[in-house]
């Protein structure tokens, strides 16, 4: 995890706003995974309408720790890729913490390449600085 407890918390109203915004925007996608009426994870692709960058979206995913290892992140990623390809989105970008080796492997196995590294980009609660790996997938 690269967030401290309470950081990036989105309440129910915030989720509803994001989902509404993403539903109304052809550049955005918001997916939710429910397990027994609980949100186990979600992903988001966010694009911009500016012509020079309208060909790409930024991908983000979050899965509750108790649901790690069930393929939820993989399925959210693959559905996002299918959506992007079907909607002529040429590039998907993402950022991932260097220590998240499983995610990096998942992304590489789904066509993403490392495009760069932001050195000592995150200061976490253990007092150490960590790199952020910038990855992208281009689908012509």
TrEMBL record:
SUPFAM superfamilies: Acyl-CoA N-acyltransferases (Nat)
UniProt cross-references to InterPro entries, sorted A to Z: Acyl_CoA_acyltransferase, GNAT_dom
Single GO MF descriptor: acyltransferase activity, transferring groups other than amino-acyl groups
Record keywords: Transferase
Pfam families named among the record's database cross-references: Acetyltransf_1
Domain N-acetyltransferase: 1-140
The name this protein goes by in its record: Acetyltransferase (GNAT) family protein
Native species: Rossellomorea aquimaris
Lineage, highest ranks first: Bacteria, Bacillati, Bacillota, Bacilli, Bacillales
């Amino acid at each position: 995890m690269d967030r401290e407890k309470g950081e990036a918390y989105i309440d129910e109203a915030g989720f509803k706003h994001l989902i509404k915004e993403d539903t109304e925007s052809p550049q955005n996608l918001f997916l939710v995974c429910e397990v027994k009426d609980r949100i186990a994870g979600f992903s988001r692709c966010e694009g911009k309408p500016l012509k020079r960058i309208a060909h790409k979206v930024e991908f983000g995913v979050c899965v509750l720790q108790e649901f790690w290892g069930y393929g939820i992140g993989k399925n959210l990623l693959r559905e996002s890729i299918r959506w992007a390809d079907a909607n002529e989105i040429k590039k998907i970008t993402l950022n991932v913490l260097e220590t998240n080796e499983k995610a990096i492997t998942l992304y590489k196995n789904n066509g993403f390449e490392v495009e760069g590294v932001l050195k000592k980009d995150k200061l976490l609660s253990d007092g150490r600085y960590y790199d952020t790996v910038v990855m992208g997938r281009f689908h012509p």
